[in-house]
Amino acid sequence: MSARKLGMVTYRVLWLVFFGLMAADLCFNLSAVPWWWNFAPAVLAYTVIILVNRWGGAPHRRRAAREPVEVAPPVTGRWSALNSPADRTPSHGVHGYGQTFAIDILAEPEPGARPAFRWLWPLARRPQDFPAYGAPVLAVADATVVRAEDRQRDHLSRTSLPGLLYLMLPEGMVREVAGVRRILGNHLVLDLGDGTYAAYAHLRRGSLTVRAGDRVRAGQILARCGNSGNSSEPHLHFQLMDGPDPDTARGRPFTWRGIGVPRNGETFDAPPPVTAPT
């Protein structure tokens, strides 16, 4: 087991210990133990994750300086970018899970087609209300499938202030403790060769058309966009990594052929693949 993988396992175990101590204190009133002692595992968990992200998750300087890997866009049609590495790195605020150069994209077929954020009401929306839900997701290159997961449910959106707080606090913490599968939701990882792996996250349950070990061609439909995992609304989370396991991989920069890397809020049109296999 690598040092980074061991660190991630330790981080999750410490949170489980913290929740166990809190539950025991509430149920059995452990007055003999100082109340602040219950928070020691949480403090240690944060310390571990900081160390992992600082020394185990950040890309090596020489690796980070490598030229972006050019691949085809993973979607077709009109989309907009969010949490883009064109604006900052790490794009999602952390290097963990290979997210240094990750990007989120949302379908924008026409102005107003995507429901806007609301402060209070509605608290949540069905995933079917968003144009990204069910949109085809394409292979960005000829590759081999190395990870495939599509059994997790597509949940309601978190596009209100209460919903977003729920996603960021209790739900997000539970998913962190449960591991990378619960964060990515239904997902795929492709081996593109030359030490490069492409990850697609938050896919629709039951939509995968491939499984681990399959060979795929660039432009082939792999799955459908969904709202599984740590997701506020249906969208595609895409990233390149230097390994197949997001728990231990480091992010690699990418550029989409004919598009580049769209900035936050930028709308782009992805053409259909030239030769999409049947």
UniProtKB/TrEMBL annotation:
The Gene Ontology terms for molecular function here are: hydrolase activity
Does Transmembrane helix appear among the keywords?
yes
Q: Which residues form the M23ase beta-sheet core domain?
A: 171-242
| The EC number(s) this enzyme carries | 3.4.24.-
**TM spans (from-to):** 12-33, 39-56
Query: Which top class of enzyme applies to this chain?
Result: hydrolase
What keywords appear on the UniProt entry? Hydrolase, Membrane, Transmembrane, Transmembrane helix
Q: Which Pfam families match?
A: Peptidase_M23
Matches recorded under PANTHER family: MUREIN HYDROLASE ACTIVATOR ENVC, PEPTIDASE-RELATED
* Protein name according to UniProt: M23 family metallopeptidase
